[in-house]
Amino acid sequence: MPPQVSEAPREPAGSSVVRRTLNRVADPSTYRPRPGEIPTDPGVYRFRDGHGRVIYVGKAKSLRQRLSSYFQDVSGLHPRTQTMVRTGASVEWTVVATEVEALQLEYSWIKEFEPRFNVKYRDDKSYPYLAVTLGEEFPRAQVMRGAKRPGTRYFGPYAHAWAIRETLDQLLRVFPVRTCSKGVFHRAELSGRPCLLGYIDKCAAPCVGRVDAAEHRRIAEELCDFLGGTTGRFVKRLEQQMREAAAELDFETAARLRDDLGALEKALERSAVVLADATDADVFGMAGDELEVAVQVFHVRGGRVRGQRGWVSERESADDAELVQQLLMQVYGAESAEGVPREVLVPTPPADADAVTALLSEVRGSRVSVRVPQRGDKRALAETVTRNAQQSLARHKVARAGDLTARGQALADLQEALGLAEAPLRIECFDVSHVQGTNVVASMVVFEDGLPRKSEYRRFVVRGDATDGGGAVDDLAAMHEVLTRRFRRHVAGPDAGPVAGPDAAAAGGEVPAGIDPDSGKPRRFAYAPQLVVVDGGLPQVTAAAAALEAVGVPDVALVGLAKRLEEVWLPGEQFPVILPRSSEALFLLQRVRDEAHRFAITFHRQRRSKAMTASALDAIPGLGPARKAALLKAFGSVKAMRAASAQELGSVPGIGPALAQTILDRLAAGVAQGTAAVNVMTGEIVD
């Protein structure tokens, strides 16, 4: 078994897979498996909808007992579970050998398929971390948010970014690790001069060779040790060095060490001592109602609170033990061994406490204790964390009430204004971007339930003839091509019929057309939206409608949003639909359109930047791919090459004096030509 849960195989060796599939209907009894088909062994099960998407993943000690509970009396289930079984169209299960394997496989599938009915603990805000990039040659300390990256150690989370910067500023006196960006570091290497922090001894300045890579890494690792809770040895070391310097009458060094010691003590004061026995533990608190649950966790290292984090989630089950188990798997499933503490204090024991303890111990590499604190300081701290969870839930409800109401109202208003049969829960918007017909690209953004679904965003490079006879860009042809390419993928899947998967023979069923039979994931562009939005007026809508008709997608609603007066155009209509300026529906359409425009512009700028760099160097004779790569590595951009001298260009390997002068002349001529062209466009006369 692999050491980390995230690396678990999708289906463990020796497991068996069984599927029970029928067409999607509202009554779950129509796809209910016969009790004799379901084994009594431990395993993991998946519910799929009519399109084949995984909507729920669960595990059970006895598959027969657990799956039968979903089909006995649907009215007795939790409301969320009722919706799940009525949305489902099939159920399948995988038998494994042990409960630990089942727990591991369940987490792996939840992470892979992101089922909509599984509990997802999302941060109630974006917490900043103090990160040290140990994966780089010269590690860097910086403030980071978002997803964690491999090769980087994280400390926190902190309540505010300024708290990280103040703490780091104190620690740089003792641990002068690099904090600059790659660009600043590279410029310092080229110039041979360090930045300000290097001059005031708050950086070891590896950029100019004051320390080598090994020494700088040692400094970064000591900083990580201090932040990780090993503080005593650094304080004792500074005290010893200060006494030795004073004994040798080196009072200047002793004074500097005294100030360094004060900086460490000031940094330590920022984290309160909560457990006197220097315990390493994560303390969880939970508060919820029938619909939602809020979770808070205090990260205690060396007896001090090193960070705090919170989540708010929809409640899937009334059983808190099940929620605690899923929470621990999501928090620690993707962590490295150093992220799992020796103690995990929870408000309720997880449902399979032994299996969870065994799995966390395996991830950490040593024994982990998962328990409920009963008395003393740990119980008092757990009560404090629970109070934080209660306050977090109250704040969330106040903020979410308005948000949910606005999104629901926007979708309802759109349905009514456009005459749709159902609310447009999935909206796709397309936009074309170019500059005078060059680097023509397009974007597709997706909003689900009124919120952006960035994992579904797509970018297109327009490949067809996107210009008219006069050389101007034909936006309509570009829009027609992009929509044709997008919906051809959708039409090809369902029309091809069910695809037999590798387990179809054993399962006695077929893999739905929208699902890749090898990976089990949804195919790209496999599902149609309820509403397509294009950026533009009636001409763009007409072109889009022609593309949908040509591909054979008649059941998707289509509108265009014109920028000038924010008019909503429908295919074949002579006049637009005018939505009130205060309408939530108009606000949602504007958000979707603006996001598509932003995404298209970003992609266009990336391609234009690469094309400009490549074209400027491609026109220079004697400059092949290897030499161009060497120049870009040394200078970073064409602009920097123009500012360089012939001697600096000639110092690059493969660039001689004659070629260096040719490069300067050609780049200067290119700037002059570009200026002339711009001035002619603005009406100015250039000699």
Label this structure with key terms.
seven-stranded mixed beta sheet; disordered N terminus; disordered C terminus; 20 helices; 17% strand; alpha+beta; 687 residues; flat; six-stranded mixed beta sheet; 20 strands; single chain
Structure description:
By secondary structure, the protein is of the alpha+beta class. Helices cover 43% and strands 17% of the residues. The protein has helices spanning 63-71, 79-87, 99-113, 161-171, 182-191, 196-199, 213-227, 232-247, 251-269, 320-332, 353-364, 376-418, 475-495, 504-507, 538-551, 584-618, 625-635, 638-643, 646-650, 657-681, and strands spanning 16-21, 43-48, 54-60, 90-95, 122-123, 129-132, 141-144, 153-155, 281-288, 292-301, 304-314, 343-345, 369-371, 426-435, 438-448, 451-452, 458-461, 531-535, 557-562, 567-569. Helix 4 (161-171) packs antiparallel against helix 9 (251-269), helix 12 (376-418) packs across helix 16 (584-618) and helix 13 (475-495) runs parallel beside helix 15. The protein starts with 15 loop residues before the first strand and ends in a 6-residue tail after the last helix.
In summary, what is this structure?
With 687 residues, this protein is of the alpha+beta class.
* Relative helix content: 40-55%
Instruction: Count every helix, treating DSSP H or I runs of 4 or more residues as helices.
Output: 20
CA-to-CA gap between the ends?
Answer: 75 Å
Largest sheet: 7 strands, mixed
Parts with pLDDT < 50 across at least 5 consecutive residues = 1-10, 20-25, 466-472, 494-511, 672-687
Work out the number of β strands: 20
The structural class is alpha+beta
Radius of gyration: 31 Å
- The residue-averaged pLDDT reads 76
Q: Strand percentage, roughly?
A: 15-25%
Rough shape?
Answer: flat
